């Protein structure tokens, strides 16, 4: 499935949201990818594009509700949405 996304480099939103996660450099909301720095490695792009596909599958609220639930119940490393995105890297 072909998807399109808007990439925001040097994003203050991303810097703020990920301030406590120096290992994470991008966050995706819907079809917008917010990046901490001025470039995004291709494997991170593939990961974030997979999150865009997940948003298309579940809808904005459906994705965020699932993501929040998995983070609370399983944590980041066991979040199935992250596993799915990692397989796309
Ligand atoms: Zn991810």
What is the strand tally?
3
Distance between the termini: 16 Å
Helicity range of the residues? Answer: 40-55%
Number of domains: 1
Mean pLDDT: 96
Overall geometric form: globular
| Residue windows where pLDDT falls under 50 for at least 5 positions | none
**Class by helix and strand content?**
alpha+beta
Give the ligands present.
zinc ion
Strand coverage percent: 5-15%
- How would you write the strand order of the largest sheet? 1-3-2
Number of helices: 4
- Strand and helix order: EHEEHHH
- Which value, in Å, is the CA radius of gyration? 12 Å
The major β-sheet equals: 3 strands, mixed
Main features:
89 residues; alpha+beta; three-stranded mixed sheet; 4 helices; 3 strands; 51% helix; 12% strand; binds zinc ion
Write the layout of secondary structure elements.
Layout: E1 6-8, H1 12-17, E2 26-29, E3 32-35, H2 42-58, H3 60-73, H4 80-87
Parallel strand pairs: 1-3
Antiparallel strand pairs: 2-3
Describe the overall structure.
By secondary structure, the chain is α+β, with helices and mostly antiparallel strands. The chain has one domain (6-87). It is built from 4 helices and 3 strands; from the N terminus they run βαββααα. A hairpin with a 2-residue loop joins β2 and β3. The two termini are 16 Å apart. Zinc ion (ZN) binds next to α2 and α4.
């Amino acid at each position: 499935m072909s998807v399109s996304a808007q990439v925001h480099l040097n994003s203050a939103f991303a810097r703020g949201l990920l301030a406590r996660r120096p290992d994470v450099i991008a966050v995706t909301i819907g079809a917008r990818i917010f990046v901490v720095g001025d470039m995004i490695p291709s494997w991170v792009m593939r990961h974030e594009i997979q999150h865009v596909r997940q948003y298309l599958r579940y809808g904005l609220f459906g994705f965020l509700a699932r993501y929040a639930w998995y983070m609370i119940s399983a944590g980041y490393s066991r979040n199935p949405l992250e596993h799915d995105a990692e397989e796309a890297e």
